[in-house]
Design a protein that fits this description.
The protein is of the alpha/beta class and 241 residues long. The chain is built from 13 helices and 8 strands. The longest helix has 17 residues. The chain is globular and about 55 Å long. It starts with a strand and ends in a 5-residue tail after the last helix.
Length: 241
Amino acid sequence: MEIDLFIPCFIDQIYPDTAFNVIKLLKKAGVKAHYNPEQTCCGQPAYNSGYWKETKSLAHKFVQDFPGDRLIVSPSASCTGFIKNYYSDLFTKEDLDYEIHLKLKERLFELTDFLVNKLKFTDFGATFPHKVCYHDACTALREYGIKKEPRELLSKVKGLELVEMEETSTCCGFGGTFSAKFTAISSAMTEQKVEHALNTGAEFIISTESSCILNIEAYIKKNNLPIKPIHIADILTTGWN
């Protein structure tokens, strides 16, 4: 199978190793990934800030960057959920991109959904001898709809002990521009999220969302806490080459 790979801004700019690990995962599962280096932001930050005109320009570019009929896979339920659920708000039915988008969103998959439900490939032979907890990111759970998929993949990792934290589905406080506009509230939410994770005795907080990881990681580093956030793709490629 051949797919197109969509790497969101956060991963491209801050966590590029995660992107390379996604390619390793797909290759091990027998999938050849094509990457278009012209791809850019999907437009979610601009949309959430009310800049719909600017978002439409990015949406137009996105659908043009992924032509053809190959499936599109991305290590972010936030970005894929946004494209699937909100691009229709940007295009009128008279826009050429409206029909293109309707077809595109049907071939767009978040990574864990693709691996578990489309590819039926869940055991990568990874080894990670640590106690971990999983953070259900808001958009992953509520807009894209994944919950069991990441946990199924983690259950196959040798040595990994998954413990559920209290209020696992509560927001970590990032929320895109929310964290910039309401810093005090955001910080309190992040503190609560990390405290729940620490209470489990876990050494790592795993998520499908690099934006959540960035937010949680900043709080952890500032307070020098003994826990680390990590993307699920980085876990699934641990212990093999």
